[in-house]
Every structure is written in structure tokens, then in C-alpha cells.
Amino acid sequence: MEMETGREKEDNNNICEAETNSSVDWRGRPSNSIKHGGMKAAAFVLGLQGLEIMGIAAVGNNLITYVINEMHFSLSESANIVTNFIGTVFILSLLGGYLSDSYLASFWTLLIFAFVELSGFILLSVQAHLPQLKPPKCNNMLNTHDNGDQLCAEAKGFKALIFFVALYLVALGSGCVKPNMISHGADQFNHQKQSKQLSRYFNAAYFAFSMDQLIALTLLVWVQTHSGMDVGFGVSAAAMALGLITLVAGTFFYRNKPPQGSIFTPIAQVLVAAFLNRKHISPSDTRMLHDNIGILLHTNRFRFSDKACIKVQDGNNTKEISRWRLCTVTQVEQVKILISVIPIFACTIIFNTILAQLQTFSVQQGSTMNTKLIKNFHIPPASLQSIPYILLIFIVPLYDTFFVPFARKFTGHDSGITPLQRIGLGLFIATFSMVSAALMENKRRISAVNENKTISIFWITPQFLIFGISEMFTAVGLIEFFYKQSLKGMQSFLTAITYCSYSFGFYLSSLLVSLVNKTTSNSSHGGWLSDNNLNKDRLDLFYRLLAVLSFLNFLNYLFWATWYSKNQTSSATIQQDFNSKVVGDDSIA
């Protein structure tokens, strides 16, 4: 689907050569490669990452249980609250990436918004502990409407305000922290001289992510289930506080990259300059473009944007031309890169819509099943989400140790398969997660309604296992794909873009639930997901719909991945022809 082109290699080499020792220590002085950076410094960032992930995962993955049982919202409302919350976390990562790259730098962004996240955890814990901040207790599963009254009053007014303020403080803090944990850890390495250590850091970060998710979904969810949500939220707050201490403890060891000013200004300048020069004709010889000898080489895609580089002769050569009328080729090429990766990014949204189901409806599936593991031990339904991470802990090392070297013999690619191929394989596998979910929900519903039997919770483990495998390919492939884009000074923001796929996926899940309920409802009965009782709902049909959408999304991805690869190959060919011409002209001269 994709091969690393000569143009890509040359761009990456140019960026590495252009990367100077601009990093500074905590006092703003030039950093020392012996005292600052390296895995020693990155270990402190990994500590924050692990503790933050534990805290937010324990809250997000069991939040639907709290919203239904304590706040008394309906099933569909609760699912939307959870998906909107998680979607907001990921979309706010754009804000964190922008503030870091433009104004604050990654360390200060981490420090400020980690405190914001901690305050949200504390407020959630306080509300969960104090009865006066919650609706009166009742059995939400018996919330019938035979007499026209609602037995369980949902949270409203001040109680709802406290809940949503706390929840979205957590969302704001976590969203701005997430992209900077990855970028700040990577900043501790010289991307050219320490490429192996950098690769080892990313592997350690992903392995730590899986381990911390597993701890959150087992131990912390067990604490929430058996000791109460107030204690569970308190543990999340304690984990976040410890993470902050870990971050601060590494202050003297960090290499910090200073912010570069607004990252959007150069992009806006290209768009404005291209529009102002829209009536001019781009020169056939690209050497005529302004500052063509830069970090990035000129490509032949999106030719309209090249108009931003046209030198307009106005008879006054001594007058300095505004950057809003004349841009460099490197500026224009960065805009081209951003435009070209948008379709790839968009194709992963449905993938994360499937993930949303595993954190909402699949948890509710588990709560209606037999959760008994042994005589006196029951599995918390929210812990089902730990299944993919149990699998990943074993599969990721096997993938790196055996699959990558084996695939490299056939593909010649350092990673075994390219990031685009890895994303595509994950998207294809994800379809079968929803197929499995639909089949198992149909079996569960028939057993409960027709046979009055409660089947074991292990019947729904395949959908989690299958998605775990697909996530290993798609999630990691997406981060690798964006990380390899030749955009200097936008590392945090590019990482944030990958998180936005999660955000849009969860928002789309909320939209789909509302549309499905509205479309499938009539005067005699509600929609597929309108009841709080899964035995009356048709969750199996909703899963079938998602399976179809997932497969169609995979076909759409194949089209755009092929387009991207052909575009890269074509650009490389044009650049090679141009270089040959330059060499020929120089030799003649």
C-alpha cells in the first residue's frame, strides 16, 4: 500500500540536519547532552503517563455505571454522556498540542493541566461521597412508568452542575496532557543520533499504556465496585497527584524545546498568499519559486498552493515583501502534508466508534450476564475492557520479535509493514469485532427472553479480543504515520490529531444512537436503544449496523491509502527528474 519514497527519505534527512541543539534546561540555558535527556529523563514522563492513564481509564471505563446507578440517567442518555466526555477529552488534545508547540512548551503544559485534571478527580470524589450532592438512592432497573411517574429522579440543577463541572475539568486536563506526554518524552532524545533509543521509548510507552489500562480496568474498577465510586474516584485523584510529583521530580533532567510561536500563522500565510496570487501562473521551472532550497523539497501535488511561492515583480526590488503575500516552499509543503493526511485520519473515525461501544453498551451487556468466575468472585463488567490489554501485553513483544523481522524479509521495510498497511489491517479486523458482538448479543437476548437463562459473561469476550488485535495495528500505525510526517515544530499538535480520531469516533457514536432511536421508533414502541432494559432493546441490530459501516469504511480507506501512496510515489519521481536536471545544468555550466 505504501513504500518509503526517496523524497520522504530526503525530507527526513533534511529535517534531521536542520535540527539544531535548540533544547534548553529548566532555567532556559542550552541543555547538556550528558546531564539532560535520554531514557533517564523519559522515565519520569513515563511515570506520569502511567499514573494519568490509570486515573482517567478507571473513571471513563466505569463511568456509565456511576451515571446510571448514582445520577439516574437513562441508558441511552448515560451512553451519550460517557461518549461525549471521552470525545471531549480527545478533541481538547488539539488545544494542548497547540498551546505546547506555540506558547507554553510541553513541560509547562503538562504541569498546568495536570493540576486541572487533579481538581476534577477531587471534585468527582467529593460529589460521589456526599449524599446531598446526588439524587436519592433507588433501583434504576425498576424505574417503570406504569403510573406515569418516574421512580428514580435523575440529577438536575446544582447536583447535575457539580457533576458536569467535575467531569469536564477532568476532560480539559486530560485532553491537554495526553499529546504532551508523548511529545515531551520523545523530546528527550536526539531524533538523528538516538533513533534506536527513541524507538525503544515508543515501545516502552505503548507497553506501559497497555499495562496501566489493565491495572485500571481490573484493580481500580474492582475498588470502585466493592468500595464505592467515591473511593474509586479518590484513588484516581491519588494516582494523578503521584503522577504530578513524578513529573516535577524530573525537572532537572529534562531537555525542553522552546515554543515556536503560533503554529497556525505559517499555514494561514500560505492560504492567504495563494488566494492573493490566484490570478498568477505557476512557473514550469520550480526553481523560480521563492526559497526552493529549504528543509522540504517541492512536490507536484495541490499545485494551487504553489501560487503562495510566486515572486511577483512590482518594479521595487528593495521593498521587503510581506510573508502574507510570499511564502517559502517549505511552508507550502507543510500545508500540502496536512491536507494529504486528512482522508487517512478521517477513515479511523468509525474504528473509534466501535471502541465507544465496548466502553458503553458492551459493559451493560456484561452487567446482565452471569459474572461469576469462581465460587465467591464475580467479574466487574467494566473489567471486560481489560481483555484487549491482556492480549496486547503478550502480542506486542511477539509482534516486534517475530513478525517484524519475518515481514521485513519480504517487504524491505524497517517496520515489517508500512504504517498505512498496519492501519488498514486493523480496520479490516475491527469489522469482525462488531460481527461477533451482534451474534453474542442475539444469543444472550434469546436466552434471557425465551429461555429465562442468564449466560456466562465470557460469551462476549471474543468481541473484546478481536478489537484488541485490531487496535494494536490501527492505533499504533496511526501514531507512527503522523509521527513520520515531515512537519518540524508540530510534534505535540500532530500527536493531538491522532487523538482527535477518538474524539470524532465517540461523538459519532452519540449521533448514531440518537439517529437510530429516532429512525426505528414509532407510535407502538420506542427505538432499538430507547429502553433501559437490554432484553427489550435491539442492541444486536445496532451492532450489525456498525459491522456494515465498518466494512464500508475499510473499502473507503483502501481508496484513500492508494491515493496517498500514488501521490507520494509521483512526487518522488518528479523530484528525482528535477534533481537530475539540476545536476545536468550544473555540469554543463
Unreliable stretches (pLDDT < 50, length at least 5) are: 2-7, 14-20, 144-149, 582-589
Q: What is the overall number of helices?
A: 16
Please report the total strand number as a whole number: 2
Write the H/E string, N to C.
HHHHHHHHHHHEEHHHHH
What's the arrangement of strands in the largest beta sheet?
A: 1-2
The coarse silhouette is globular
Task: Let me know the largest β-sheet.
Answer: 2 strands, antiparallel
Structural class: mainly alpha
β-strand percent reads under 5%
> What does the radius of gyration come to?
26 Å
Give the CA-CA distance, first to last residue: 41 Å
Helix percent band:
55-70%
**What's the average pLDDT?**
81
Report on the structure:
The two termini are 41 Å apart. The chain has helices at 6-18, 38-69, 75-91, 93-129, 157-186, 195-227, 229-249, 264-276, 329-346, 349-358, 361-367, 387-411, 419-449, 461-483, 491-520, 539-588, and strands spanning 372-374, 377-378. It is mainly α and 589 residues long. It is built from 16 helices and two strands. Mean pLDDT is 81; it is low at 2-7, 14-20, 144-149 and 582-589. Strands 1-2 form a two-stranded antiparallel ribbon. Helix 2 packs parallel to helix 6 (195-227), helix 9 (329-346) packs antiparallel against helix 16 (539-588) and helix 12 (387-411) packs across helix 14 (461-483).
Show the helix and strand layout.
Blueprint: H1 6-18, H2 38-69, H3 75-91, H4 93-129, H5 157-186, H6 195-227, H7 229-249, H8 264-276, H9 329-346, H10 349-358, H11 361-367, E1 372-374, E2 377-378, H12 387-411, H13 419-449, H14 461-483, H15 491-520, H16 539-588
Antiparallel strand pairs: 1-2
Helix pairs in contact: 2-3, 2-5, 2-6, 2-7, 3-5, 3-15, 4-5, 4-7, 4-15, 5-15, 6-7, 6-12, 9-16, 10-15, 10-16, 12-14, 13-14, 13-16, 14-15
Organism: Nicotiana tabacum (Common tobacco)
Protein name: Protein NRT1/ PTR FAMILY 4.3-like
